[in-house]
Design goal:
Length: 399
């Protein structure tokens, strides 16, 4: 079968690889009909999330059809349409039973202390081959696969594999409640769903910061109050729009790869962001190859702490890799902030979000801006990496 395979930092290829097989009684094999490219995949390709094993199939979002099930799998049969939850949980350990599927004691073969196991991740997460492929082996299939409601299209279902539940989780981490003012950092796919999630969890006002016009336009379509960091000082503007107080909640949907403003407006403390060495932005190489990072920025974390009101709450769902140590703890402590962060417990949210989409409560399709065949996946990665105008979420039409 064909699959997108990680070979080295900045080097992914569409390779011919062996078809997956049942390895454990609780496994299933699915034929993938839709996959997608996520910002987390870029972290792996760039090397900002280290430890990838050469030969690992990447990707952690998919919709598919069950082809084969192991002898311990009940309730799923060949022919069933399913969504794959991006993080893997056994469903029976104490963490899974409490809803913390991303901290399953069993799924990660490195042991209970190893943390999240997810598809297409680095060595510390398993690794488990990913979902940008024609077929995939699904561990703990009874937990990791969720049936697609009758009549729901693949395009409606694919973003419930990871993006929508991650954003919903971010709003929960930020403790969004009725009437709250909420700032979303980043208007990419996760940020767009964070806007939608915050509104459906009771937010009274939602602000969003980004520097790409097409993303801000899409956010305005959700009636978010948009801030272009290339033209405006986001911290000063948030303070002005909230009577000098700041927002009640912040959702960091960007993480370690936050870009500096192109024209360097002042931050909330009057500093020129381009003058600070550690805030150097990720950039694509001149020849168009994927960017390979140097020093990691902490711009989103700083803006989150500066923009939130005293005693406010920050929910972090943007990726910060192991070893990142630049969070402004002193400023956060001085403001009595609460900070929640982590990998999404997808299985906790996917079933009800599928029903929300099926009922018409949310339409994910406007956030899909590109459909590509797997043969174009590598070029799609490069364009996504460059954050080109109009490029939000790429879906791979596999089947």
């Amino acid at each position: 079968m064909k699959a997108v395979v990680w070979h080295d930092v900045g080097d992914i290829r569409l390779d011919e690889v062996p078809d997956p097989k049942i390895l454990e009684p609780s496994d299933a094999i699915i034929r993938i009909t839709r996959s997608a490219i996520c910002g987390t995949d870029l972290h792996l390709v760039r090397g900002t999330m280290p430890g990838m094993v050469p030969g690992t199939i990447v990707g952690h979002e998919a919709v598919g059809v069950v082809e084969e099930v192991g002898p311990a799998v009940r309730g799923l049969t060949p022919g069933d349409r399913v969504v794959v939850t991006s993080t893997i949980g056994c469903g029976t350990c104490s963490y899974c039973r409490a809803g913390y599927y991303a901290q399953c004691d069993t799924a990660n073969p490195h042991g209970p202390g190893a943390g999240t196991s997810f598809f297409g991740g680095p060595e510390t997460t398993g690794p488990v081959d990913g979902l940008q492929a024609e077929y995939a082996r699904i561990p703990f299939a009874m937990t990791t696969l969720v049936p697609v409601p009758d009549g729901m299209s693949d395009d409606d279902a694919i973003l419930v594999s990871d993006i929508f539940p991650t954003a919903w989780f971010g709003a929960r981490l930020a403790e969004v409640g009725t009437g709250d003012s909420v700032l979303v950092l980043g208007a990419g796919a996760v940020g767009q769903f964070a806007i939608a999630s915050a509104k459906r969890q009771g937010a009274g006002r939602v602000f969003v910061v980004d520097g790409i016009a097409s993303r801000l336009n899409l956010a305005r379509g959700q009636n978010a109050e948009t801030i272009d960091f290339n033209a405006e000082d986001p911290i000063a503007l948030v303070k002005e729009l909230t009577g000098g107080i700041g927002v009640d909640r912040v959702i960091d949907a960007v993480g370690v790869d936050a870009q500096r403003p192109a024209r360097g407006p002042a931050s909330g403390q009057g500093k020129d962001l381009e003058s600070e060495q550690e805030l150097a932005a990720p950039e694509s190489a001149p020849d168009g190859d994927l960017w390979v990072p140097g020093e990691a920025p902490s711009l989103a974390a700083r803006w989150a702490v500066e923009a939130v009101a005293k005693a406010g709450t920050i929910g972090v769902i943007g990726v910060y890799p192991p070893g990142f140590d630049r969070f402004p703890f002193g400023a956060a402590m001085n403001k009595n902030l609460t900070v929640h962060m982590g990998n999404c417990n997808h299985r906790r949210y996917v079933p009800k979000l599928l029903q929300l989409v099926a009922s018409g409560g949310v339409d994910p399709k406007p956030f899909i801006t590109q459909h590509e065949k797997p043969a174009s996946a590598i070029d799609a990665y490069k364009t996504f990496d460059r954050r080109e105008e109009g490029w939000l979420k790429t879906v791979l039409d596999v089947g």
